Amino acid sequence: MPTHTTTHSAHTVLTPIVLTIAGSDSGGGAGIQADIKAISATGSYACSVITAITAQNTLGVSAIFPIPLEHIEKQLDAVFSDLNIVAVKVGMLADSDTIKLVAAKLKQYQPAFLVVDPVMVATSGDLLLQASAISTLKSELLPLADLITPNLPEAAALTDSPLPTDDLAMRAMVDQLRQLEVKTVLLKGGHLEQEDNSTDLLILADRIEELSAKRTPTQNTHGTGCTLSSAIASYLAQGHDLLHAVQLGKNYISKAIEHADELNIGAGHGPVNHFFQGHANAG
């Protein structure tokens, strides 16, 4: 009778595994679905822990069902106890208790890299997290992160400051963001739609690196923040240093936006084109 001797340790090439901890988007453009697409398209293996189930499409969110804490914990234990997770991306966490649980589990399992996309503000401008939950995010989770990736409304919420409306006001936030207990911040300038370029600021302890890409005129930008943070986590898992991983992530999301109109998804703000490389090859 044949015996199977293949074990995990028998594999000579380690697959870069990235965990996304976030909410599910039934429309497929953002959240867990966007994360899995971005991690896969950039060459890593994606696993997931779902923190909430949303009913949404390209026109908006109609319902949110938070996953019970016990089941979030069981998902985390399941993936960490079996998979060699190198990098973690955290997105939507519904409340303080969920944030505390995820932070405690990350301290327990200590993945090599943590990227936090602080999903706090809806496109409409509505706060998705209560003030107490923002405080918990800042005290419990952000200090664990190697990188956080706020857009301008999220950065304004984190620093309790006005929403920047131009490049100068965006740069004026740097000192306040440096005062957060965070290693590195990628401040995204995508909301400054009057600018020809979309410029992000990578705020390091000793300097600022600018990452700029020509702005693509399209309404199909749903899930850009999820996609970018997941791509960066993917590149970190593959061994790139932080600056290079951010540069690669910025290049990936810029191209995914550039090719977004090749898709025709829904009647509202459609998704970016995560698999633009495959489509280009097919052509």
From TrEMBL:
Keywords: ATP-binding, Kinase, Nucleotide-binding, Transferase. Its EC number is 2.7.1.49. PANTHER family: HYDROXYMETHYLPYRIMIDINE_PHOSPHOMETHYLPYRIMIDINE KINASE THI20-RELATED (PTHR20858:SF17), PHOSPHOMETHYLPYRIMIDINE KINASE (PTHR20858). One of its GO terms (biological process) is thiamine biosynthetic process. The keyword Cell wall biogenesis/degradation does not apply. It comes from Marinomonas profundimaris. The keyword ATP-binding applies. Pathway: Cofactor biosynthesis; thiamine diphosphate biosynthesis. Pfam families: Phos_pyr_kin. InterPro entries: HMP/HMP-P_kinase_dom (IPR004399), PM/HMP-P_kinase-1 (IPR013749), Ribokinase-like (IPR029056). Residues 25-273 form the Pyridoxamine kinase/Phosphomethylpyrimidine kinase domain. It is an enzyme of class 2 (transferase). GO terms for molecular function: ATP binding; hydroxymethylpyrimidine kinase activity; phosphomethylpyrimidine kinase activity. This is hydroxymethylpyrimidine kinase. GO terms for cellular component: cytosol.
